[in-house]
Specification:
It is a single chain. By secondary structure, this protein is α/β, with parallel strands linked by helices. It contains 13 helices and 16 strands. The chain starts with 6 loop residues before the first strand and ends with a strand. The model has no long low-confidence stretch (mean pLDDT 90).
Length: 440
Amino acid sequence: MPRGFRILGTSRANLSDEEFRQRAGAAIEEFGRETTRGGSWEAFRDSLSLVAVGNGLGALSEAVTRTRKELGGDPRLLHYLSLPPLAAAPVVRELGDSGLSEGARIILEKPFGFDLASARELNATVRAAFDEAQVFRIDHYLGREAVLNLLAMRFANGMFDPVWNRDHIDHVQIDVPETLSIEMRGDFYEHTGAFRDVVATHLFQVLGFVAMEPPASLDATELMVGRARVFEAMRPLKPADVVRGQYAGYQDTDGVARDSDTETFVALRAFVDNDRWAGVPFYLRTGKRLAEGHRQLMLAFKQPTRRMFPLDRRYQAESFGCDHLTFELGDPGGISTKFLAKVPGPSLQLGEAEMSFSYATAFEGPAGALEPYERLLHDVMTGDRTLFTTSKAIERIWEISQPLLEDPPPVRRYEPGSWGPEESRELIAPHRWHLPGHRV
């Protein structure tokens, strides 16, 4: 943090500064890497105060003016809006009307709209108060070390990028199954669903990193443009290429309609129609109450044109191929590659082998890693836009999603603890979903 800073919390509740500081301290004790014992916490604690905003932002404007005088100099202003789109729009308008947008930066939490029309409306509201360079649309998924390692591995090593194309890759899987239910978020989830909550945000952004062309440099603008071009090349989603599911018991959750058609599971097939990826399917999957939790990207390589080695029957049955590269996108993250090697012995028999890298044991291990939000908030304060997206890219994502949103396939029931509807396995056939220790 800079030497001089203040954090003004906002709330509809009329809490005192001390109550706000106590809540912050409890959160740090539960989730933070630091503790509230020591001088660093005391200094941070004194920077916190709370402003009641139940009747507009007048009190906030006064607090900002007062705090700027206390700090002296010309401190910058950063707004963090963790609000749904319908609530964010009027707040953004009032920030502009009150002059609090001048020279400020603003962070917007997902979802960035619910469809193309709402995304365009929200973007127009934001642009009326802020220049695009002031706006940071935050997606914590892109702050993960393992996601960033995609860039390093692909573009810093000459062995990977030459085969990162349709001539060598059979298909790509981006898979984020979760064991958790929607918990207490029934009302939110009922109006959002798995596609809007995870696929149209996290997974499409990861796809953008995977499929982008080599940038001219690691400049933030180059990387943002590279991902945007991937979205421009994506085909609109066909409802026939999507499987929606809902776990048994979801409709019993508070805030959920008893005849709800909201999906808690989605699997889909997408295509990027450019020279690098034409014809290569990208399979994306996520869901609640599934058998295991993972965050994984897998690239399956094509089999050799000419098979010279006899294969064990079990490898002949693996239609996605035995050679694939896997990125574990969870914490601490890692990379593994599987391939066929000769089994020791007198006969020429092949067996599956693996090489792996883990952040848990490499470099400084987890202790040296930044939390995703920690990294992204730091990037906003320094003005680094590498891991953020533009209004144009957001609108394009909703544009390719519109056919699905207008004509969604019916939800299929699945049992908690399973791998989702059977139709998701039919979607990827003759391939299989691949997870560590599983081919499902």
